[in-house]
Design a protein that fits this description.
The two termini are 15 Å apart. The protein has 10 helices and 16 strands. The chain has a 6-stranded mixed β-sheet. The chain has 2 domains: 281 residues, Aminopeptidase, CATH 3.40.630.10; 127 residues, Alpha-Beta Plaits, CATH 3.30.70. Helix 4 packs across helix 10 and helix 8 packs across helix 10. It is of the alpha/beta class and 424 residues long.
Length: 424
């Protein structure tokens, strides 16, 4: 029996285990924010991976963004050495999930199985992928116990809020210095290999005014109106310019192959009152207005040019608007990244996809960032991709689900890729 048939048989025998494992993970509500139950899910993974012969380490990202005594940022890294030295393949999955939201017809944390699907918040993004990687590793170890190299599996915090308490922290502590290949089982569809992502620049723009009585606004200067002029200038000049920029990166969906800008929030005037306050606001001209922008840019663009475009908008408004003043503050930046198609991990997964599914893999780039950004810029490891089960469009939606057959096939792809990366 050839290696593919043996791995297929091992994974098929673990079908019920894969379903139960995915359900167990979904039933731990690791909501972020605030970052709930991270230790609980790490303890669960610790017990599971110890039974499979992994050496495990639980790491709290003390001092990282978001870490607190009430909601500590816990991570787990498990490593299993082979019979001989060799390269290290690391599967990284984030353990956090986004808020539930409205519109569910199933229990968001029930892990219900229906029509070949497992439902729940995080089923697709990305507890199904985490479960599939564990099953893949266990099936490979059972089939090839004498492999040369090391397998690592990590469950990390806070990907949904930037990853600073998870992969970024581990990268800063040198955990990826011992790794040769990284597969992140994000839900990019089972026949796609995600090579990287667009860049992102978050910034806060503040317009300034002068407070005065609301019945005499002519005695003050309304910062909200100033911000309205900024938005109008963006609509007139910036948004059309961004729509004309196109990339050769295979970004999906098609609309993300251009540069984009999202106005994330605008806050002006008096702060929101406590929920138990039922009175009216006071009559004041707002003297401050803040806007947070989320700019996604292409590998063909330069970060300095991205910043300059925003400053040019603000300067044009200043030139035509008496009393206009502003400040701009960078909140976050990540440069675009794209792993080369001839990278070893790309070749191994591509070959496995073709073996399992009988067709060539599609190569894509994500419109938004994920934890590859930290493995690249902090860990200095370029040999990294995202590959996993699940339909990307279902992430963060009500009635989120992952297909059982998709997980089975993805697990087989991951196991075959392990065999290839360890030299067959």
């Amino acid at each position: 029996m050839d290696i593919r048939a043996r791995l297929h048989k091992e994974i098929a025998a673990r079908r019920d285990d894969l379903i139960a494992l995915t359900q167990d993970l979904i039933r731990i509500p690791t909501l972020n924010p605030p970052g709930a139950n991270y230790r609980e899910i790490c303890d669960y993974l610790d017990r599971r991976l110890l039974r499979a012969g992994f050496h495990t380490e639980l790491i709290r990202a003390e001092g990282a963004i978001g870490d607190s005594d009430k909601h500590p940022r816990w991570n787990i890294v498990a490593r299993r050495e082979g019979k001989a030295p060799g390269q290290c393949v690391h599967f990284n999955s984030h353990i956090d999930v986004v808020e539930v939201g409205h519109g569910w017809t199933t229990d968001p944390f029930g892990g219900e199985v229906k029509d070949g699907r497992i439902y729940g918040r995080g089923a697709c993004d990305m507890k199904g992928g985490l479960a599939a990687s564990i099953i893949a590793a266990e099936a490979f170890i059972a089939t090839c116990p004498d492999y040369a190299g090391a397998i690592e599996i990590s469950g990390t915090a806070d990907e949904e809020s930037g990853g600073f308490g998870g992969v970024a922290y581990l990268a800063e502590k040198g955990y990826y210095a011992r790794v040769d290949h990284v597969i992140i089982p994000e839900p990019l569809n089972k026949d796609r290999i995600c090579l990287g992502h667009r860049g992102v620049w978050w910034a806060e723009v503040e317009t300034k005014g002068e407070i005065a009585h609301g019945s005499m606004p002519f005695l003050g200067d309304c910062a909200v109106r100033h911000m309205g002029a900024v938005v109008a200038e963006m609509e007139d000049s910036l948004f059309p310019a961004l729509a004309r920029k196109r990339t050769e990166m295979p970004v999906v969906p098609e609309g993300a192959r251009q540069s984009t800008l999202n106005i994330n929030s605008i806050h002006g005037g008096e702060p929101e009152q406590e929920e138990d306050y039922t009175g009216m606001p006071s009559a004041c001209v707002p003297d401050r207005c803040r806007m947070v922008i989320d700019r996604r840019f292409l590998i063909e663009e330069n970060i300095d040019e991205v910043q300059a475009e925003i400053r040019d908008v603000l300067e044009r408004v200043r030139d035509g608007r008496p009393g206009f003043d502003y400040e701009i503050k960078e909140l976050f930046r990540v440069l675009p990244t794209m792993t080369k198609r001839d990278a070893p991990v790309v070749g191994a997964v591509s070959k496995a996809v073709e073996q399992v599914m009988g067709r060539e893999a599609d190569y894509v780039v994500s419109p938004g960032t994920y934890d590859q950004k930290h493995i690249d810029r902090i860990g200095r490891l370029k040999n990294c991709i995202a590959y996993g089960p699940g339909v990307l469009d279902l992430a963060h939606k009500p009635d989120e689900w992952v297909g059982i057959e998709d997980m089975m096939q993805s697990a087989e792809v991951m196991a075959l890729a392990l065999h290839d990366l360890f030299g067959g």
